[in-house]
């Protein structure tokens, strides 16, 4: 927090990231039911963008919104569903 407190604009927390990484972000102050990250320009970025939101407790269960953006050039609904189902299975372990 101290290192990036006064930084504005794009922050790369770890310099020199490889080209084949998957960004996972958390917006702990934002509760959402949908989150669009769509871009309409040509981009070589083919990895999913995963965003987690503000968690809450409902009926004794912890919940957090999750948004997944994938390029249809490399994944379709089946792959996205598999990713989300795997994330749900992992979350149930905790």
Mean pLDDT: 81
Largest sheet: 3 strands, mixed
Number of strands: 5
| Helicity level | 10-25%
Shape: globular
Distance between the termini: 27 Å
Physical arrangement of strands within the biggest beta sheet: 1-2-5
Number of helices: 1
Proportion of residues in extended strands = 15-25%
User: What is the radius of gyration?
Assistant: 15 Å
Which sequence of SSEs, written as H and E, runs from N to C? EEEEEH
Whole-number total of structural domains: 1
Query: pLDDT under 50 segments (min length 5)?
Result: none
Task: Supply the helix-strand structural class.
Answer: alpha+beta
Care to describe what's here?
With about 90 residues, this protein is α+β, with helices and mostly antiparallel strands. The protein has one domain. It is built from 1 helix and 5 strands; from the N terminus they run βββββα. It has one helix at about 75-90; strands at about 25, 50, 55-60, 60-65, 65-70. Strands 1-2-5 form a 3-stranded mixed sheet, with no helix packed on it. A two-stranded antiparallel sheet has the order 3-4. A hairpin with a 2-residue loop joins strand 3 and strand 4 (about 60-65). The radius of gyration is 15 Å and the shape is globular.
Features:
94 residues; alpha+beta; three-stranded mixed β-sheet; two-stranded antiparallel ribbon; 1 helix; 5 strands; 17% helix
């Amino acid at each position: 927090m101290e290192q990036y407190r006064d930084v504005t604009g794009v922050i790369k927390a770890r310099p020199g990231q490889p080209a084949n990484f998957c960004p996972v972000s958390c917006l702990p102050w934002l509760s959402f039911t949908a989150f669009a990250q769509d871009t309409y320009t040509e981009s070589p970025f083919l990895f999913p963008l995963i965003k987690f939101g503000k968690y809450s407790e409902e009926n004794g269960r912890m919940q957090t919104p999750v948004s997944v953006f994938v390029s249809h050039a490399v994944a379709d609904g089946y792959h996205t569903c598999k990713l989300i189902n795997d994330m749900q299975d992992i979350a149930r372990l905790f």
